[in-house]
Amino acid sequence: MNLSDNILNNLQNLESKCFLCFCTLDKSNSSKEHVIPKWLFKKFKHDDDGMKLGNHTNLRYKQLTIPACKNCNNSILSQIEKAFISILDNSFKNLSLAEELIIAQWTLKIMLGTILKEMSLEKDIKKVGKKILSFDQVKELLPLFILLHSIFYETELKNRKPWSLFITSFETENYDYHSHSFFKTASFKFGKIGFIITFDDSSFYQVAAQNFEFNKLSDMRFIELTYTFFALRNSETKILISKKELIANKLIISSKKHYHKPKIAYSTKYKNTLNYLLNVHKMRFNK
Asked: Which of 51, 190, 259, 269 has the lowest tally of Cβ within 10 angstroms?
């Protein structure tokens, strides 16, 4: 069974399994992984905060947990957390490709962990049966699950990266987080530094917007930019998807250098930012 089939098979039958390595859980190896890391909501004093789920209920960050084995929770993911904190402490400066991969893995754990939580909860809290998200919906995110599983393998990125990453700085100091897993995009604000990342785009948006300023943003500008990328990802036609293959226990992700031009429909709320991005798209890719 190849990696894609293995992930899909386990996602379809995830009950009593670790969300990451898919091993069977029992009393000896079971633990709970906090989707939003505990150090994060403690650092920014968000212990009592949470997020609204697809069934319109609010879940506090402390309660947003998913089943994990002790090895994945206390060893593998702990190493990712420590590496990410070190990168954050350095204000995301002079990032290597390996450090960008850590940022991608850390972000995907949060995005996909939230998705898996919704896959386990009832859509109608008064009825048993239909879940907030079905397997058929979640399997659309297979490329992101494969990228998350790069945690377990030596990983080679060919041609372009399978993400676009924008480091941002801010006028004010506070925490903020936005994501849309099905638009494959997330943004984080950690005080006066943060990032926007969009996945599975072969670095299309990073190349297209390489001259765009992401410095000293206001909080509203940050939110506007994040939702601009949501709008772009929602309305694109075909950004060529990266090919992902597991060969001799090595994960090879190969991204093509040429793209289809996105079709964009947008509201006036995003007009200025989108006009800039689209003008860059036209100059570079509309050939």
From this structure: 269
